[in-house]
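Lecture 7 notes: from sequence to structure.
We start with the chain below.
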Amino acid sequence: MASETIAQPKAKASPPRFVPMGDTALMVVFGEVIDRDVNARVLAFDAALREAALPGVIEAVPTFCSLTVHLDPCTTTPAEVAARLAPLLPQGGVERPEGRTWNLPVCYDGDYAPDLAEVGERTGLGRDGVVAAHTRPAYDVFMLGFLPGFGFMGPVEPALALNRRAEPRTRLPAGSVGIAIGLTCIYPYESPGGWHLIGRSPVALFDLRRSTPALLTPGDKVRFEPVDAAAYEALLARAKAGTLGPDDLREQA
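Predicted structure tokens for the same chain:
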């Protein structure tokens, strides 16, 4: 993760910086904090780069505040790529790309939400208040990372902007829904994790049976829909069977 700064409103824009990363990559840095406007500039630049199809560019990887451009050192150099990238940099304010909107089910009941009661006490919202606050926004997908398909989404409402847990868990269940540092997430696989777990989703965020394995893309939006334990288990069975697909989860225009 590029930064552990809690998501900030209206970060001051700064001129992009080119940072060479050896002879095979170049990082273009747009800011230093997690911010919607900074991330919008990253994603706009990523879209412009894909459309330009510059020779020697293999792929580009967007993060919260930067875009890493991977290149073929046999055909180009970071300096040459930087010169070609400069005219593509976004000028002034930009709009976030019009990505897809996903409605993802989450069970906030009992053992599916081991930290919900504690978060309710710490925030003063109570269990129901935390669920209401967590399901109210449409979250921006800022970037993917940590695990395949893991989307960093936010910002959460200010009352839920807690720091990470003092002691991370060494193992947590796949589908665990967490909050920390002003963001929210779904862990795609069983893994270690230090975020506060307030629910669990049956959705497979990464599935090699799909033509595009990762469900989420930076620039998408996500809404969480509460479901009870019975509905969760039924949806989980469908996800495991491969019958809970993107068309079932995407918000229709």
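Points to note: Residues 36-52 form the longest helix (17 residues). The helical segments are 36-52, 78-85, 116-123, 126-135, 229-241, 246-249.
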